[in-house]
């Protein structure tokens, strides 16, 4: 239910499949990631302490993003930092992915609705380097 994509000891992504279930709180990311990803399941009546988030200065050198698939299917193609194609995974309704490092590209396989969450502000072309997608005859789709 949890899939981790790793290349040369570098974590590229964490996928939480829509069937994942566990009581309580489960964090999937190390504390030094600029995006923190957790799953929470609580019973009716559970109170979570009221709180505010303190203003804290952080240095962010790499954009990490979370995608929540609300509807449809999306193929995610993973690439090394050197733009070499590695493998692909298909996400479906209810799946969540944290893209932590390396490169990625997408192909919509069924009409898609998704939510993207990442650090801002967005800097346009300064934020990313675009490159050629893998050809369909070289796809290696993992489960």
From TrEMBL:
Annotated InterPro entries: RmlC_Cupin_sf (IPR011051)
Name under which the protein is recorded: Mannose-6-phosphate isomerase, cupin superfamily
Source species taxonomy: Bacteria, Pseudomonadati, Campylobacterota, Epsilonproteobacteria, Campylobacterales
